[in-house]
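Deliverable D5.2: sample structural annotation.
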Amino acid sequence: MKLKILSIELLSFLLFFSVRGQQWLRIYGDSINTLTYHVHEHYDKGYIFTGKQEEGWTSYGWLMKTDVNGYKLWTKSFGLPGKINPVTASRITNEKGIIAIAGTNNISSNCTDPILYKINPCGEKDLV
């Protein structure tokens, strides 16, 4: 009899109480259209987002670092007004920095050339 009561209590507990994981919703970007192409988990369990920000005819390369809860720590954009520089691929390096590959028409507006950014873990450009 005790086993039946315990089974009924356990079953009712499972039916009426659901276990949920942590959920959070964050919206990034200001008044500029922001598109993310890649998200990487970083060494501190935060996240690195890479992509582009578009404003008119300009497309800036964009990187952002968040903490473990998704709050923005820093953001960087690369490029010149009126030019196209979207970051299309990225990777975390062995030194915990970021390698980002972009296309740019800074040299000639008739064609797009590849450009490589190396960023340290603090979000500053490193020399390649």
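Annotation notes: The longest strand covers residues 33-41. Residues 32-126 form one domain.
The annotation will be released with the project's public dataset once the embargo ends.
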